[in-house]
Write a structure and sequence with these properties.
By secondary structure, the chain is mostly helical. The protein has one domain. It contains ten helices and no strands. The longest helix is centred in the C-terminal third of the chain and has 31 residues.
């Protein structure tokens, strides 16, 4: 329940932020009549994200056997890389997201001369956040196979309630919690989940290729533990699901973990430098 709760919480807060910025801009610029288009766009964005969820559900039930295992492997890999891309994007646009959205709203009104531009902008923004949520949850669902569906649903509901409370606190008082710290902490936790998904994807791929007749060193690379930290922190399904932690990791798992975090730090550093120079 932990990962679904956090993912829905984080993505819902970001979606609420986008809608909140657009709504405040419409009121400030005396475009109150266009708030109807804003809410319609929000609803359509949720519908698009829901359609993606249905497509994932149908695909997961349609695939079977080895093909299904590779499909689920790719799903986890895509979710992990999408998390990385989203965090890097927020590092580049995070500070100027308000200005960016307001400029997009101005451009939309200038192009269409009506509320259709606001509708489309809201729809795309919400669909993006909703689609990310669907992909992340799909990846976590594959990673944590065997977890009751009711726990996922409960985690999602609690995550959305927590998102409403968090957004209210962020809007009302920056002394309790600031947007800067919210994004920093949530991005760090997202990367932990992304790293866990990345490792799980390689684990599932390794399980598939291990059935072939491969050189002995390949099996040592993907199976033999490099060390054991079970005496300190034993294997735990929740911890593994959130971070990819293994008490007895193989060399493959160690390299994959280092590679993911190296890319995260490198790309975020590059984006920050571009931000400072621009």
């Amino acid at each position: 329940m932990g990962a679904p709760l956090f993912i829905v919480w984080r993505e819902s807060v970001e979606a609420l932020l986008v809608i909140g910025i657009l709504y405040a801009w419409l009121r400030r610029e005396n475009f109150i009549s266009l708030t109807k288009q804003l809410w319609i766009g929000t609803g359509l964005g949720l519908v698009l994200a829901g359609l993606l969820a249905v497509m994932f559900w149908v695909a997961s039930n349609w695939f079977a056997g080895a093909g299904g295992e590779w499909f689920f492997t790719i799903m986890m890999l895509v979710a992990a890389l999408l998390i990385l891309q989203m965090v890097v994007w927020m590092h580049y646009h995070g500070r100027g997201i308000k200005k960016y959205l307001e400029q997009e709203a101005v451009n939309s009104l200038q192009k269409t001369g009506s509320g259709i531009g606001i509708l489309v902008l809201a729809m795309l923004a919400v669909a993006r956040e909703g689609s990310e949520t669907v992909v992340f949850l799909a990846g976590v669902g594959v990673q944590q196979q065997g977890t009751s569906l009711s726990f996922f649903i409960l985690g999602g509901v609690l995550g959305f309630i927590l998102a409403l409370l968090t957004f209210w606190l962020l809007q009302k008082s920056s002394t309790i919690i600031s947007w800067k710290w919210f994004f920093f902490i949530s991005e760090l936790l997202l990367l932990l989940i992304g790293g866990g998904l990345f490792i799980s994807a390689f684990d599932k791929a390794a399980a598939q290729i291990s059935s072939y007749n491969l050189p002995e060193w390949v099996y040592h690379f993907i199976d033999d533990p490099v060390w054991s930290s079970a005496w300190l922190i034993p294997d735990n399904s929740t911890l593994t699901g959130l971070t990819g932690y293994h008490a007895e990791p193989s060399l493959m798992q160690v390299i994959v973990f280092i590679f993911y975090w190296f890319c995260a730090v490198l790309f975020c550093h590059i984006r920050l430098n571009k931000n400072k120079s621009s």
